[in-house]
Amino acid sequence: MALSPVTQASPAPGRITRVMIVDDSAVIRGMIGRWLTEAGGFEIVATASNGRMAVDAAARTKPEIILLDLEMPEIDGLAALPLILKAHPASKVIVISTLTQRNAEISLKCLSLGAVDYLAKPESARAPGAANEFRRELVEKMRALSETKARTPRFSAAPAPKVVSPAPAAIPRPGSTKPQCLLIGSSTGGPRAVERVLLDMKPALSRIPVLIVQHMPAMFTAVFADHLQTLLSLPAREARDGDAVAPGTILVAPGGRHMGVVSSGGKVAIRLNDGPPENFCRPAVDVLFREAAAIYGASALAVVLTGMGSDGTHGARILSKAGATVIAQDEATSIVWGMPGSIVKAGLAHEVLPLESIGRSLKGLITGAST
């Protein structure tokens, strides 16, 4: 199971988030409900044992966050999701499933249909600590989503005019060094955001290697990489130790392992390691950013997209000192403005852009064409 990207925070004073739990197991529903009640700041307004009941309950109780199991009788989570969002579009849905390749594929499909995040259930055969880790990750994801403004992030299909945050939020871009590597860090809401950015800059992808750290469980990262390859019709895969970092290739950090880079004989290759989590994450964006800064310097180009926590901020500081360009997603289009918000608040963002403008900006920087 992926490690949680933030430490547990206390609920905002007086803020109560309305929650619905959908799972065919009464034991699971009761356990999750008890955890959230004990955490404080959450009210369980409805529970359901199948997708059909969930659709009716969502329309009736209007929960802010819905925990949705995938494997249920009558209507499963995948089929229920669009019906739930139609019944109550403002709800934020977290998909929960056991960690299998099939469920990883279904979970990513759910994200494309409007779910905002996913959680892997611990398996009974695993170590006792897995349940505690699941509980911590659940509460922290719930807390991050509950503190997000009540809004629907924009994922418009048509390109929007380039919008940059007010001057205090952005710093001047470094010199005109041509980018030699694109680094992307993301977490909650990241898969959809990564897809959008890469699709919008697709004509430039053949010119540069792309290295992605997306906070995901181990099995999910391989499925996500395969999905990107199908979507983009370009080489994309889960990174392996020693893989060449070459233009036109997209490499995704494997869940549970840090991904960095090493230079030897004038060539750059992937370096994976099992070092301790950083920012409670493995893989951590910070690891990739600081190792890339040492090799690429000012020719690195980094993007921090939607996600909870502050992973990437320390690495972005090192990149910035090396002369690299750092771009952050804006608050309005982020599912959770934790990671990009931390970059902006630290004064490390050279541009702060809505999601629909990031790909075009990157394409311009890489090709030298005006955006």
Automatic annotation (TrEMBL):
<comment type="similarity">
    <text>Belongs to the CheB family.</text>
</comment>
<dbReference type="GO" id="GO:0000156">
    <property type="term" value="F:phosphorelay response regulator activity"/>
</dbReference>
<dbReference type="Pfam" id="PF01339">
    <property type="entry name" value="CheB_methylest"/>
</dbReference>
<feature type="modified residue" description="4-aspartylphosphate">
    <location>
        <position position="69"/>
    </location>
</feature>
<feature type="domain" description="Response regulatory">
    <location>
        <begin position="18"/>
        <end position="136"/>
    </location>
</feature>
<dbReference type="InterPro" id="IPR008248">
    <property type="entry name" value="CheB-like"/>
</dbReference>
<feature type="active site">
    <location>
        <position position="187"/>
    </location>
</feature>
<dbReference type="InterPro" id="IPR000673">
    <property type="entry name" value="Sig_transdc_resp-reg_Me-estase"/>
</dbReference>
<dbReference type="InterPro" id="IPR035909">
    <property type="entry name" value="CheB_C"/>
</dbReference>
<keyword id="KW-0963">Cytoplasm</keyword>
<dbReference type="InterPro" id="IPR011006">
    <property type="entry name" value="CheY-like_superfamily"/>
</dbReference>
<dbReference type="GO" id="GO:0008984">
    <property type="term" value="F:protein-glutamate methylesterase activity"/>
</dbReference>
<dbReference type="Pfam" id="PF00072">
    <property type="entry name" value="Response_reg"/>
</dbReference>
<dbReference type="GO" id="GO:0006935">
    <property type="term" value="P:chemotaxis"/>
</dbReference>
<keyword id="KW-0145">Chemotaxis</keyword>
<feature type="active site">
    <location>
        <position position="215"/>
    </location>
</feature>
<feature type="active site">
    <location>
        <position position="311"/>
    </location>
</feature>
<keyword id="KW-0378">Hydrolase</keyword>
<comment type="function">
    <text>Involved in chemotaxis. Part of a chemotaxis signal transduction system that modulates chemotaxis in response to various stimuli. Catalyzes the demethylation of specific methylglutamate residues introduced into the chemoreceptors (methyl-accepting chemotaxis proteins or MCP) by CheR. Also mediates the irreversible deamidation of specific glutamine residues to glutamic acid.</text>
</comment>
<dbReference type="GO" id="GO:0050568">
    <property type="term" value="F:protein-glutamine glutaminase activity"/>
</dbReference>
<dbReference type="GO" id="GO:0005737">
    <property type="term" value="C:cytoplasm"/>
</dbReference>
<keyword id="KW-0597">Phosphoprotein</keyword>
<feature type="domain" description="CheB-type methylesterase">
    <location>
        <begin position="174"/>
        <end position="369"/>
    </location>
</feature>
<protein>
    <recommendedName>
        <fullName>Protein-glutamate methylesterase/protein-glutamine glutaminase</fullName>
        <ecNumber>3.1.1.61</ecNumber>
        <ecNumber>3.5.1.44</ecNumber>
    </recommendedName>
</protein>
<dbReference type="InterPro" id="IPR001789">
    <property type="entry name" value="Sig_transdc_resp-reg_receiver"/>
</dbReference>
